[in-house]
Amino acid sequence: MISKVIEKAFNDQLAAETYSAYLYWSMSAALEEMQLPGFAHWMRAQAQEEMNHAVKFYHHIVERGGRVKLGAIAAPPAEWESPAKMFEEVLKHERHVTALIHKLVETAAQEKDYAAGVFLQWFVNEQVEEEAAAELILSKIKMIQDSKGGLYMLDKEMGQRGAGD
User: Fold this and answer.
1) Where are the domains of the chain?
2) Burial of 1 (0-12, 13-18, 19+ CB in 10 A)
3) Which CATH architecture has domain 4-158?
């Protein structure tokens, strides 16, 4: 049986993961408007990944006899001045999510909820990948600076992202 403390914390994280999906969908829409379909595709894939993370929390709560309680999800920003500014925001956001996951690990340890601790290890590892991906893309954007040809090539690369990448 899941404790009320873990149940609430996991419901909060489910909402945070859903907000992440909203953020990436909003970024995808802005990138479509910027005529960068590859970047937009990458963001839609990222949004789907975040929804998959939310579903993992949903199932964990239910499997442990808890109650999923959904709350309102805040509207994300809708405007960014450039892909570089957008990916600075992505990296900042992923670092925030990492901090949330680390707090959950601490809470699970304090509650002596070993099942939650094991469950969260996947997310700890996932956040390492999420931050590394954001850092790599941001470094590539900075490398090409104002090169329209470089941005075109990077957009093509971003469009190659598969569903599980």
Assistant:
1) 4-158
2) exposed
3) Up-down Bundle (1.20)
